[in-house]
Amino acid sequence: MTTKTTSLSGRLHLAMTRVTPAATLAVLAGDHDSDVRAAVARHPSTPAATLAQLAEDRPVVVRRLVADHPSTTASTLALLATDSEWLVRVAVATHPATPASSLALLATDGEWGVRVAVADRPPLTPDLPADEEILAAVTAAIADAERRGENWCDALPDYCHGDPAHESDGQYITTLPDGRVVWLVEGDQFTRYRIA
Hints:
Helices cover about 45% and strands about 5% of the residues.
């Protein structure tokens, strides 16, 4: 496709059509008209590499659309977290893929709207180990505490916490930060646990 021979309305149509291929969107991202580039930044199929290119676009509206796009990568969001326009930084603050380091920076932003956007986010869940590692850590902590005659609840990994709604259930072990629960599995000769 050559965008030089296509009219502005034709290029806008291509940038807004759901079936436009990623390669065509990449070409349109370099269009001289900012409305075309904004349409590419809004397009649901725009690839992450094209969004990264548009993150350095001059018009604020294009950068803001990139910050809102679900396919924008954490590295692009980190770049946009330092954008000179506060509306772009607000969009970064609300994006679910924004890295914690960028959120920490935005939490101290000079614009109150950016700080409010960070404060309004749901709490971050820490990076959890793989389920097998969680179960191994819980098993080892409980066995070690029981061997020492200590309360195993105090021996669980730091990311575990109790939930009063479950604590009366004899099979309940702990709740993980992502809301899943570790349960005791009964019925065999070995103590086992599961995550549900």
